[in-house]
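Residues pack. One example:


***
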Amino acid sequence: MSLKLPALLVVLCLMPARAGSTSVEFMPLEEIVGGSDHVLAAKIVRVDMVNRLGLQVRDRTARTGPGLPNQIRLHLEIGEVLFTTCRRQPRRVVVPLWQAWHYALGTMQDQLQGSTGIFLLIGAGFDPAYPNDFQRGMAERERIEPLVDALRLQRKQSQLSCKEGGTVTGS
């Protein structure tokens, strides 16, 4: 047996499986925080779903995923702004989740509504800073705060008008 075959087997074993599931590469917390425009301690007060026309979907069995028109959104009530690039500190925001995740509305409502966390978001529309791991547990606050301090040194608060609860504020 030549050395090429064992080397090929090792390479094939190390390749990640992509068998029809939605996945994203791991990104370290430091990189997610470093790319964030907003770091917010918040409570999820509502989980809803809209279709591609922006109309509410009320069927708890409705799903999201690749090729489906639905999007789940998290409605956050901000408890504390750890960092933001917004002109005004937001009180409520709506976070649209990545549509490629395979979720059912009812499952997400049952699991997330009423929970608290630290949310790492980007842009005026408060999108997740990364599709995965943008919502962190409150227990990670001690790990996140030094990263936020570094973020403050790198970036200043801007005059960005940010959406709050679906409308533009600070204009």
Observations:
- The mean pLDDT is 85.
